[in-house]
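Students often ask why we bother encoding 3D structure as a string. The short answer is that it lets us treat folding as translation between two languages. Here is a chain of 511 residues written in the first language.
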Amino acid sequence: MALFLFSAYNVDMKRKDRNLHLEKLKGGLERSEQEKIDVFFDALDHQIDMPLLGQNLLYRHFYDGFDHYLSKGYSVDEICKLIDVRYLGDFYRGDHRVSYSLDNAAIVYPLGMKYGQMPMFRLSVELKEKIDPELLQLALDFTIRRFPTFSAVIKSGFFWHYLETVNHVINVEEESDIPCKPISVLLRTYRSLRVLYYHKRISVEFFHTITDGTGGMVFLKTLLKEYLRLKGVTVGDDEMILDINEEADEKESVNEFRNARGDASLSTFVDKKSLQVKGKPSHLNLRRIVHYEMDADKLHSVAKSYNGTVTAYIIALEFLAAEKCVKRKDGIFNIQVPVNMRKFNKSKTLRNYSMYFNASMDLSALPEKRKLVEEISRQIREKGDENTMNQMMMTTGKIIKSLALVPLFIKVPIMQMVYGYLANSIIGCTLSNLGVVKVPEGMKEAIEKFYFFFAPVSPTRVSTSMVTVNDTTVFTVVRNGNDPCFEDELYELLNEDHLIGKIEGSVEYES
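And here it is in the second language, the structure alphabet:
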């Protein structure tokens, strides 16, 4: 009886608070306009059916959106059309819990969470105008319904971790902390992604269990299109932008690793232990971030002059930088290079669908730059081809199948040994190149550039990444050690070819 009275009291307080907010919102408007606002929020009440906390959050988001538009001189009719509650679909109606097994690439990620390491990556877009957080919040409320596997939490089963989708409200946050900070999985309200804003920048940080860089870019571009729509900007169609009013396509949640064909070969996983660049590792996920901005056409021309692709050229520079930044040179340095498998079969999956290979060189016997670029180009062709990548996927599947009936509490130390520190020790650096991101008209005029980066996983001290848009390439170096040698050497090497147009860097997150 007491519980019922407490619940009834809270519902009553919710109604009183909402009425007070509405009266404030309607202040100074004509009666006809006030009635339209009442009708709008009545419709919102009927559009959501979830716990009180979520209802109040959504209500606040729409109230803030209304208030924002009114302050800009929009009419109530214009506002009701822009933020029509039907954009929510039925996502916030009832309890939509659906379970998904993790894809083969994601299976290992939750196993490292107890060891203080959480594979996170960030995609950001810098706009030409300052972000309106009220509109970004509504854009997220509307967009997330189209990505059910992105609104998910990690659950522990008896044999494996798995994803469970939830329809809880995700709040946009003003950025104030270290990028790619691990998400606390102990909190009941945690999500596998976070959406942040800072001045003109929108950032989305993903826990790698739910997607890879390509899937993350689809989400960011879809969110950005919705945000620009709310800003009154018309954005054209794009194959990497989803229609938020459509139902999710089953092809978008496929675990493509199960469709791999070929022979399993353990040799695809075997590699020599890599040398590491100098520097005492930070206890944080990352210590410093540096962005080198370059003209994309000029970068392509320079790479071509060395008989290589942009990726081969940058990898070659990283070997030359590593040569100056390791304690000893008598050994192999490995640079891990992810391969987007979608380029082989045009898959629509938004889940992880990338494999990788290691570009390897003996730092004591590096050839001159042109020969080095040519050698890296050869390794990319041979190690990153479809057959080799399929072999690795088949091997991954075979390992997972062999452990399928092993309880999770026993599996954790086994998988930690196979994929954890031992596997990471064969990586000296990672280069992930998302390539050229095409953007449609309307969006192209609104943005300056994209950023993409992730924190290195111990014992690796550095990770690097690239993304190109609007003829601008942003090459990012993330450092997890206290020695800036690697980023400094890369600067000198890029400067030799007159490529660097602008440099941006974070503070040292740990002194």
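Translate back mentally: Residues 303 and 313 are 5 Å apart (CA to CA). Keep this in mind for the problem set.
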